[in-house]
Design a protein that fits this description.
Blueprint (H helix, E strand, L loop, with lengths): L3 H19 L12 H13 L4 H8 L3 H13 L3 E4 L9 E4 L1 H21 L5 H22 L11
Antiparallel strand pairs: 1-2
Helix pairs in contact: 2-5
Length: 155
């Protein structure tokens, strides 16, 4: 590979392939969350209730795509539709206690998987890797104009 960016491209592709190593396995309590539900629930948890329009702007996705995804989440009891708490016309999606529970469970299992992968890394290597991933993501967000809110303490 002639440039480091070529290696980053290739390793990013492999990272997607290896996601099953850290992703939770199917469980008896309804299975694991699919990727879109995991990401949508994470965003709604941080931002609070969001409308389809707000989700569309945040993700850069067509409202019809989000309608399908949120409909599946409604059926699974992960989110509920509520009147806009700020008095707006559009109804918003709020994460339910079941959605909170499933998101927490999924996140905990993912972190455990990552800890297995990183078991031989020093704390400094893990911190450096986390900082580089954060910078990579925030630079993408800056270029796309779609910043992602981050909790003060990601744990």
């Amino acid at each position: 590979m002639d440039k480091p960016t070529h290696e980053i491209e290739y390793e990013s592709m492999l990272l997607g392939r290896h996601s099953h190593m850290t992703a939770p396995r199917t469980r008896r309590d309804g299975g694991h969350l699919d990727r879109s539900a995991y990401i949508l629930l994470s965003r709604v948890r941080i931002e609070g209730p969001m409308s389809i329009r707000q989700l569309s702007e945040a993700f850069g996705l067509d409202p019809s795509t989000l309608n399908r995804q949120t409909s599946a989440m409604l059926r699974a009891g992960l989110v509920e539709r509520i009147p806009d708490p700020d008095g707006g016309i559009a109804r918003k999606f709020r994460i339910t206690p079941e959605g909170e529970r499933r998101l927490d469970q999924e996140r905990s299992e993912t972190v455990l998987g990552l800890e297995k992968v990183l078991t031989d890394w020093t704390p400094e290597e893990v911190a450096t890797f986390a900082a580089c991933l954060k910078r990579f993501n925030t630079d993408i967000e800056r270029l796309t104009g779609r910043p992602w809110p981050r909790p003060a303490d990601p744990s």
